[in-house]
Amino acid sequence: MRLNRLAFVFSTAVLLSIFVVIHGGVTSSYVRVAEPSEEMPLETFPPPAGLNAPEQVHITQGDHAGRGMIISWVTPLNVEGSNVVKYWIADSDGSEKKSVPASTSSYRYYDYTSGYLHHATIKGLKYDTKYFYQLGTGRSIRQFFFVTPPKVGPDVPYTFGVIGDLGQTYASNQTLYNYMSNPKGQAVLFAGDLSYADDHPNHDQRKWDSYGRFVEPCAAYQPFIWAAGNHEIDYAQSIGETQPFKPYKHRYHVPYRASKSTSPLWYSIKRASAYIIVLSSYSAYDKYTPQNSWLEDELKKVNRSETPWLIVLVHAPWYNSNNYHYMEGESMRVTFEPWFVQNKVDIVFAGHVHAYERSERVSNIKYNITDGMSYPVKDQSAPVYITIGDGGNIEGIANSYTDPQPSYSAYREASFGHAILDIKNRTHAHYTWHRNQDNEPVIADSIWLKNRFYLPEEETASVDSRV
Ligand SMILES: *[C@@H]1O[C@H](CO)[C@@H](O)[C@H](O)[C@H]1NC(C)=O
Ligand SMILES: *[C@@H]1O[C@H](CO)[C@@H](O)[C@H](O)[C@H]1NC(C)=O
Ligand SMILES: *[C@@H]1O[C@H](CO)[C@@H](O)[C@H](O)[C@H]1NC(C)=O
Ligand SMILES: *[C@@H]1O[C@H](CO)[C@@H](O)[C@H](O)[C@H]1NC(C)=O
Ligand SMILES: [Fe+2]
C-alpha cells in the first residue's frame, strides 16, 4: 500500500518534471475497509398494485443490428391479454398502436413456482426513435418507453453504461441510481451475476423476482446487454436442481439466434458503432466445442468499416491482480487470447471480482511448452481489460490485491461503482469509472481509448483524475 503510494507520487513527479510517461500501475489510495453489503429485504420490492399487473419489466436488443427489441415481463396469472405488448412511436398520437404477442412460460425450482414469464420480440423498428409501450390489461395497464439506437455506422456516437455483479443490496441500489442519474447512458453492458438468489437458502427464487423489480426503473427503459455469470448457473444437486442456468434462461432472453449462436449464453449484437460479443465463462470453450466454433466464425464477420469498436463481455476476468478469483479466467484466456489480439479487440469487460481494475494493453500469447515463454508483454494490438464486478452485491468488496502490483495492471481500486463508455467516433472513446462514494459527475479513473483498427496508438490515462 505505502510503497505503491510512494511510487504513485514519485511517478507523478517525474511525469510533471521531465515529461516522461511512466507506466507504473496505480493502486488507488482510496482503498477502504471491507464494507458490509446489506441486502435490501424482499419487502422493499412488493409487486405493483392492480389485478395481474405486469412486473419485472426489462428490455434488451431483439435482433442483430438494433431494429428489434425484446420486451420481458412477468404476470401472476396467464389470462387473455397478459401476454401482449402494445407499442407506438412516441411522436405520434398513439392511434396506431401495434401489438406483438409474447412467448410465455413458467418454471419450477425446488419449492418455488414462477409467475408467467413473457418475452415479446418487436421487429422492424425505426432507428433513433422513441417508442412508448404498454403492458397489462384493464386498470393494471403500465406504460414505459425506449429509444432505438441510431443506424449502425462507423462514426455514430453512442454511450454505454457498464455494470457487473450487481446483486440487490443498498450498495447495488447506489450503483444503479448513480448510473441512472447520468443522462448520457443509452444502454447497459452487463458483465454477469444478476440477482445472487443462489446465496440464499435453496437459491430462494423470490430473490430473482425482487431483482427484476429492483432493476425495472432502469431496465424497462434502456436495453441491458446481459452476459451470464456463475450466479446464473443455479446448479444445486442437493435439492435436485441439476439443469444449469434454468432460472436465468427463463427470465432473461437475448437475441442469440440473430448471430447464429446455438445458445443464449454466447451471442453478438451490433449497436451504433460497436460490435459486442458476449461469451460464457461457464460453458465449454475448448477447440471443437460449440462456443469455440461460433466465436471463430463470429470474429470473421466483424466489419470494422461498419462497426469500428469491437467489445467483448465475459464474466471471469483474464487479467486480474486481485486475490479473489485469481486466475479463474486463465484457461479461457489461453484459449481465446491469440484471436483477440489478431482481431484487435478494443475492450474486454469482465465482472466476477468485486472491485475495479483496468489493465494496460498487454498480451501473453507467446507460450510455448518448450521455451516456457509465458508472461504478459505490452502489445498495441491487445485489448484493454476492465474488471467491473464492483456493482455492490451481498458478498462484499474484494479488497485484497497481489503485491506488488503486476505491470499489466494500470489502475485498481477496491470500491463499488460502474463505468461509462462514451464512444465519440471511429477513433476515440472516452471511458470513465465512477465510484459510489462520489456523485456521478466525479471521475475516479478515466482514459481516452483509441480504436485499435483506426488509431492503434498507445494511450495514456490522465493521472490527475485519480484521487
Ligand atoms: C435507492 O436509491 C434511490 C436513489 O438514491 C433512493 O431514492 C431509494 O430510496 C433507494 N432505495 C433503497 C431501498 O434504499
Ligand atoms: C464492410 O462495411 C462497409 C461499410 O458499410 C461496406 O462498404 C463493405 O462492403 C463491408 N465489407 C464486407 C466484406 O461486407
Ligand atoms: C518453441 O520454442 C523453442 C525454443 O525456443 C523453439 O525451438 C520452437 O520452434 C518453438 N515452437 C513453436 C511451435 O513455436
Ligand atoms: C473523434 O473524436 C475525438 C474526440 O472527441 C476528436 O478529437 C476527433 O477530432 C474526432 N475525429 C473526427 C474525425 O472527427
Ligand atoms: Fe461471479
Structure notes:
By secondary structure, the protein is of the alpha+beta class. 16% of the residues lie in helices and 26% in strands. The chain contains six helices and 26 strands. The strands form six sheets. An eight-stranded mixed β-sheet has the order 1-23-19-22-18-17-16-15. The chain starts with a helix and ends in a 17-residue tail after the last strand. One 2-acetamido-2-deoxy-beta-D-glucopyranose is lined by residues 368, 370-371. Residues 368, 370-371 line the site of one 2-acetamido-2-deoxy-beta-D-glucopyranose (NAG).
What is the tally of helical segments?
Answer: 6
Strand order of the largest sheet: 1-23-19-22-18-17-16-15
Question: Mean pLDDT, as a whole number?
Answer: 93
Oligomer: single chain
What is the rounded Rg?
22 Å
Estimate the strand proportion. Answer: 25-35%
Catalytic activity: a phosphate monoester + H2O = an alcohol + phosphate
Family: Belongs to the metallophosphoesterase superfamily. Purple acid phosphatase family.
EC number: 3.1.3.2
GO molecular function, one term: metal ion binding
Topology:
Elements: H1 2-18, E1 26-27, E2 55-61, E3 69-75, E4 84-89, E5 98-101, E6 103-105, E7 108-109, E8 112-113, E9 116-122, E10 130-135, E11 142-147, E12 158-163, H2 170-180, E13 187-190, H3 206-219, E14 224-226, H4 246-251, E15 267-271, E16 274-278, H5 290-301, E17 309-313, H6 330-342, E18 347-350, E19 356-359, E20 362-363, E21 377-378, E22 384-388, E23 409-413, E24 417-423, E25 428-435, E26 445-450
Parallel strand pairs: 1-23, 12-13, 13-14, 16-17, 17-18, 18-22
Antiparallel strand pairs: 2-3, 3-9, 4-5, 4-10, 6-9, 7-8, 10-11, 12-24, 15-16, 19-22, 19-23, 20-21, 24-25, 25-26
The protein binds 2-acetamido-2-deoxy-beta-D-glucopyranose (4 copies) and fe (ii) ion.
